[in-house]
Specification:
Structural class: alpha/beta
Distance between the termini: 45 Å
Order of helices and strands: HHHHEEEEHHEHEHEHHHHHEHEHEHEHHE
Helix content: 40-55%
Radius of gyration: 20 Å
Largest sheet: 8 strands, parallel
Number of helices: 18
Number of strands: 12
Strand content: 5-15%
Length: about 400
Amino acid sequence: MKQYSKEILEKYPSISDLQERAKRRIPEVAWAYLQSGTGDELGVQRNRESLNNILFNPRFLKGELNPKLSTTILDRQFDLPFGIAPVGLSGLMWPGAEMLLAKTALEYNIPYCLSTVATQTPEIIGPISKTNSWFQLYTPRKKEIRTDILRRAKEAGFTCLIVTADVPYPSRRERTKRAGLKTPPKPTAKFIWDGITSPAWTRQVIKHGLPKLKTVIQYAESKQATKVFEELRAAFGGTLSWEYLSELRDEWKGKFVLKGITHPRDVEKAIQIGVDGIIVSNHGARQFNAIPAAIDLLKPICEEFKGKTSIMFDSGIRSGLDIIRAFYYGAEYVFLGRPFLTGLAALGDQGGAHVCEILKEDLIANMHQLGIEELSELEGVTSFGDER
């Protein structure tokens, strides 16, 4: 990875700055996939509004402060309180994305979660991000495929398995349909034109090739690209049950996390099965438009179950202040997906590091404003209208 330039932090000081640049540099279909929710996308808006509504009443005159960002989760200490969430088809937004983000994870000592439907394999990514490698599983219908994927992830050095619960069926994501997304991507006239008008992205495609689901493609029997995806779609997902989860827990010997849980009674069942942690998430409102904001679902879960399992959070985080908001509601760690892909689309090789720097600087600045040196001290902070 190229040496990170501090100058770009002055030019692009926020995730929204990166969004403007990224939109100009990648094809419309890639931008639609990255940004879309489902339905009329009010769920995405709801995530944002609920985070914005968490306000604090600062206390000052705390003297000199030295905020510390290292955080321990699942018996591992990371240098920052946030990691890189799994995103399918990452290579559509920026070819080579998985390798770049794995390098970022190692350099900043944070977790990188590789999706089952990423465009790179665990065998390539594991040696790059080393013990910071977490693998996200969409559950296969055939046990032999499941066993083989888990074996590959383990042998590649992945230390934590994340099982995604909130995709029982593919969402419609109407915006991506209107943009013409096909899986696998097809060289239609519109797609070619988008490539011509996105030369930086096209250069990366020439280098890495069109995005393919490289982890799972070997399990398809068909050799025709159009049929492979339909075959894989039928082979993965839609099968997860408590019985299946229990089998997975027995089969995977490393750390085991359930992602996409939002109901307290489901958390209770997950703990009984023996998960090491959960990630409260509404999938960035990409699956179900009528779900409440993920941050509003986090608080009651933390109030009931904190201390009984590790509770992490994902969905809608766009700043260091948002990370503080999630920790205030009880999260022990936070994950971001879209911002990291946006960073790569905007800045290429330096994008992952730049997002880390944006979040780190914003965390430190807002911790000073709140008068805290550790995120654990948020318990003593007063939110607007709160009596604590």
